Amino acid sequence: MTTVDETGRAKGAAMALRALITNDDGIASDGLAVLAHAAVAAGFDTVVAAPHEESSGTSAGLTVLAEEGTPVISKVDRPGLPDVDCYSVAAHPAFITLAATEGAFGPPPDVVLSGVNRGANVGRAVVHSGTVGAALTAVVNERRGLAVSLQVEQGGPPRWEAAAAVLRVALPMLERVPAGVVLNVNVPNLPPERLGPLTRAGLSSRGVVQTQLEHRDHTSDVVTAVVGGEDGARPGTDVYLLERGVPTMTALRPVSEADDDPLPEEIPLSARG
Questions:
Q1: How far apart are CA 92 and CA 25, in angstroms?
Q2: What does the DSSP assignment read for 95-109?
Q3: Does domain 18-252 have CATH number 3.50.50.60?
Q4: Gene3D superfamilies per the record (predicted)?
Q5: What is the dihedral of CA 173, 175, 180, 182, to 10 degrees?
Q6: Separation between Cα atoms, residue 240 and residue 5, nearest integer Å
């Protein structure tokens, strides 16, 4: 008889790492399927849970649609992923990550893989990204996190095969990333044979992020916002390398205390009468 541990996994034999695949482009995104395929090929025990609609620019927001206090979650079929459980969730990707750590989609994940985003997430603008926000939420909750994005220009055809090629070397890097760090990967939208090596990059002070523009007639568009300073061309940064056809990887930390803050240990309050 097979016994299970407190997470619902079988005891005994070595188990593959459990991976949650999510994104901010929505459950129907082609990039989501690319990432799920890469995770399965890499040997992860994979589950997919993603927003039911476009959720770009939501950062680590926890907005969720609920019915009678319960989040709206639907199990769905994704073509090409017949052996992977897939869930459509009426929530932002960070909430989906948080729910996954509580067992909402089966055994909690060991890693959260977010993407493949249609559009780069680089520079300080990553603080606004729903793709990166999901991975940061994973790390805050003591999981490993990876965010991956493809530098697709507005209206341009995505080369998902480029993202797949980079993922084959990026996913094994998760074992080398220390606790508390997110690996943020960006891929030029080029044929795989034209890509440079996956290269460590600094975070540019200027960056781009996708966000959703809502109109009064209840329609919406995904637009690209440029955020930050003017040093995007500084050598060694993610923006600089990506513009030159080089896939980048940048280690990010979530919110943490400043080690070099100028604050005194305490400040006496004024005398009270």
A1: 10
A2: HHHHHHHTTTTSSPP
A3: no
A4: Survival protein SurE-like phosphatase/nucleotidase
A5: 20
A6: 47
Report the chain's terminal Cα–Cα distance, integer Å: 73
CA neighbor of 146 nearest in space, from 98, 189, 190, 110: 110
Q: Distance between CA 116 and CA 129 in Å, rounded? A: 12
d(CA 94, CA 107): 18
Q: Residue 192: helix, strand or coil by DSSP?
A: helix
17 Cβ contact partners less than 8 Å away, ≥ 6 residues apart: 43, 44, 45, 110, 111
The token pair at 52 is 């039911």
Give me the phi and psi of 174, to 5 degrees please.
-60, -30
Residue 172: exposed, middle, or buried by beta-carbon count in 10 A (0-12, 13-18, 19+)?
exposed
Instruction: List the structure tokens of 193.
Output: 């044979």
pTM (predicted TM-score):
0.82
For the stretch 87-134, pLDDT in tens is: 999 888 889 999 999 999 999 999 999 989 999 999 887 888 889 999
Domain extents for the chain? 18-252
Three-class secondary structure of residue 169 per DSSP? helix
